[in-house]
Write a structure and sequence with these properties.
The structure is a homodimer of 106-residue chains. Chain A has 106 residues and is mostly helical. Chain A has one domain: Arc Repressor Mutant, subunit A (Orthogonal Bundle), CATH 1.10.10.10. Chain A is 65% helix and 11% strand. Chain A has five helices and two strands. Chain A has a two-stranded antiparallel ribbon. In chain A, helix 3 crosses helix 4. The interface between A and B is medium-sized, with 25 and 25 residues. Chain A binds a DNA duplex (30 and 30 nucleotides) through helix 4.
DNA sequence: AACTTGCGCAACCGAAAAGTTGCGTTTATA
DNA sequence: TATAAACGCAACTTTTCGGTTGCGCAAGTT
């Protein structure tokens, strides 16, 4: 069973869950209410999120509150870095082109 | 068949392909050589990448060069934005705590 | 003109994922 | 103490995914 952050965010429901529990901890039932799906389905998603360490749980009585471990999201950010470098370079290259054109107009 | 960028980057081989064609356009065969996989498998990945508009193709004779459309990667970056806001806030909060502790030591 | 190469496409297959159902357990409530 | 609520877990079903095989086609080569 291969589990990584990229697979975790592949599912749209999971992305929505992540978006919600990023702001505040929530219970599976509370989450299920938001998405027109069953508690069990949400529970399974939470299990997956737990497996790739994207989520923290806190037990309060019979309720379990899940919250996002935001730092883990940095892994995606880190992977994106290489491309960010590229699109910024291309942008600055375009910038150069524009400057040159401007100069040639003089 | 619903295809989005997040699903595209879920597969590790696809991420590797993306990493390569970000730098320079490559043919399916050239890509296949890098990954110890068949041309057809790569071709299928490229098809998926094309479907979610992550890739550009350029035909040169009987060869087809594929290149990443880097701008599309910004979609991921944009989604990450909300979390970046959170982890930066938390970090600065931690920063505050550290400052306070430092002051109390005096 | 025959042959090779580079490719896409469609059909197929096995494995994994997503969702559903039905438990059992723990905690709260009547 | 009986009942209800909140959950996890395991079994099962359906769908999707990644890969392979086998075409066919167009572009070069001999």
């Amino acid at each position: 069973m291969r589990r990584d952050v990229f697979q975790a965010i592949a599912d749209p429901t999971r992305r929505a869950i992540i978006g919600l529990i990023a702001l505040q901890a929530m219970t599976p039932n509370a989450l299920a209410e938001q998405f027109d799906t069953t508690r069990q389905a949400v529970s399974k998603h939470l299990r997956i999120l737990t497996e790739c360490e994207l989520v923290q749980q806190e037990n309060r009585g019979r309720e379990i509150y899940y919250q996002l471990k935001v730092e883990k999201m940095k892994e995606i950010d880190h992977w994106l870095e290489q491309f960010r470098a590229i699109w910024e370079t291309r942008f600055s290259q375009l910038d150069e082109v524009l400057k040159t054109m401007k100069n040639e107009q003089k």
